[in-house]
Specification:
The complex is a heterodimer of chains A (538) and B (164). Chain A is 43% helix and 14% strand. Chain A contains 22 helices and 14 strands. A 5-stranded mixed beta sheet of chain A has the order 2-1-3-4-5, covered by helices on one side. A 5-stranded mixed beta sheet of chain A has the order 11-10-14-12-13. In chain A, helix 8 packs antiparallel against helix 9 and helix 18 runs antiparallel to helix 19. The longest helix of chain A is centred in the last third of the chain and has 18 residues. Chain A starts with a helix and ends with a helix. Chain B is an alpha+beta fold. Chain B has 2 domains: 58 residues; 81 residues, Glutaredoxin. In chain B, helix 3 crosses helix 4 and helix 6 crosses helix 7. The longest helix of chain B has 13 residues. The chains are: A alpha/beta (538), B alpha+beta (164). The interface between A and B is large, with 52 and 40 residues.
Chain lengths: 538, 164
Amino acid sequence: MNLDDLEDLAAKYRADAGDHDTEVRVCLAASCQSSGAQPVFDALSAGCDDGAAAAPCKVKGVGCMGLCSAGPLVAVAAPEAALEAGVIYRDVSAADAPDILASTAPGAAPVERLRCPSDMPFFARQHKIVLQNAGIVDPNSFRGYVMAGGYAAMVQALTEMTAQDVINEVTASGLRGRGGGGYPTGLKWSTVAKMPAGQKYVICNADEGDPGAFMDRAILESDPHRVLEGMAIAAYAIGANKGYIYVRAEYPLAVERLKTAIRKAKRSGFLGNHICETQFNFDVEIRLGAGAFVCGEETALMASIEGGRGQPRPRPPYPAEYGLWGSPTLINNVETYANIAPIVSQGGDWFAGIGTDKSKGTKVFALAGTIVNTGLIEVDMGTRLRDIIFAIGGGIPDGRAFKAVQTGGPSGGCVPEAHLDMPVDYDSLKTLGTMMGSGGMIVMDETANMVDVARFFMEFCMDESCGKCVPCRAGTQQMHGLLERIAKAEASRADLELLEELCDVVQATSLCGLGQTAPNPVLSTLRYFRHEYEEKLG
Amino acid sequence: MQRIRPDLPSTDKRWKLVNATMRRNGYAGHALIEALHAVQDAFGFLDEDAMTFVADSLDLPLSKVYGVATFYHLFMLKPQGRHACVVCTGTACYIKGAGALIEGIEERFGAAPGETTEDKSLSVLTARCVGACGLAPAVVLDGNVIGKLGAEALCDRLEQEIAE
């Protein structure tokens, strides 16, 4: 199969899908489902079948549209049109179905009472590459993905490019790992590719454990084929024939949709043996996590896939050399894989033109906490924090003042008001004492108590420490105890000094990322909000 | 020589589900976590019989099975109540008052996180972020996410569920 054949296939699918001018999209991702999107979908579908709609239209369940706090969301748009080009409705209930269907008639006015302006900054200021299909294609439909241009990058790579060509494009793109570390993806791929031929593995890290981060879940629930396509391209580039997706058991809907996607891709010959009639074989298996944060660390993740306790081991050797069952292994995050197909289709240079000097492309962030628009956004690297929080996020509700934004989860830190004009990329956040992490952003208003926030994260790290190395196992326990005493105003100045010393020791001597970064929330709140600690000292 | 697989622990049909999962993975030792998930899905928790059966079937030492079962937060070694209420204690929910929910539940039902009420009607658990930050504070009641409820409203809802 070549690109022309794929285009013919997409055309055939379009012809089969029938003629309709508009489609009514209902968000069926986890957040909207919890707000009651399923009854809305059922009511719209039933109404459409009964002929309540004025024009030929189709009701379609789609993935995340982004504005989770306003769910359930419904959009009325032309087939395959972008989200902003349509009419978006918020807080829809099943009773609104007849009105929405009536509004699809040619010339009919939109239902103003439910309308969410699609030109508001939340939608208008985003730049969607990873989330290009989210909220537009049906995640359970293989055909929908192909009609939206899916699998073209994979077919192109398999039929027109060598493995080295693919790696060259990814290297030229400047893409860096989206899981938090920011390691150059092209370099990682070429390291694994250079290992002697033999059994190699591709792993997708979907163990999104950072509290307050839900980007990977939304990508998997909205566009699972995009991730599979990225993994298949990676496998082709490094010479692997087997892949694993390690996904949290806390995300049942994402697991369900991934399973469906794998089954349908296999049945259509886009996964499995002789993919698209080429010599390339690639099979993907899902492995469930069981609620251990440390399994997001790559060596712990591999131990868990092998069926053991998810404990990390010292590196080197890196997984690229000695990974799953001792074979060279490529591990990337969900969002990294989701970036691959556009890079292959549109070229590495195109991607390198987006973003900042050292951080290319876009980043998906999950906005949460005390902010008006909670949800998922994708912006260019280098967007200012202030724009993300106040323009796109809509600022702080209830007239309260902004205090800090926490990024990077338990490994990150808090950024105060004074630094909000900093363009966001991997390096700028590091200079502020926090990190990109996987992309969770939790906004806190003036009522937040920073000692309490630090204690919260330390409790998290203490619970999640796997217990293998002493600095992390004992250090987090001691730091938590000290923070508890400070929070209760029972601590002395010597306790604060001890806390700072412990932070240093744990950071320098822990075995894996969890321990090495566990002191970050304390250090960053001490850096910007030291007075809050000192006020509590006796 | 083919190893002889152990007999099912009892005639309970749920063991067949567990066995099917292990068979699908070729009784491979690395599918241990899958097997334990299957046991927990079928029975709600892992007891010694179940762990011994899984260990024998996969040809693993019982110590390894126990080690894995206790390492992961999701595996329960004690029977759970008829209803399970998981309070999300992720950052976003924490900021929006997950602590008050836990206190409220403990006050009304007398069960702290990790405990089950005496009449076995309700188990209270916590989770580190269920990824529903847009609905903070979020609670997962018997698999359904409920969001944006205060402690009072949540407890009323729980009582209603238990009564049904």
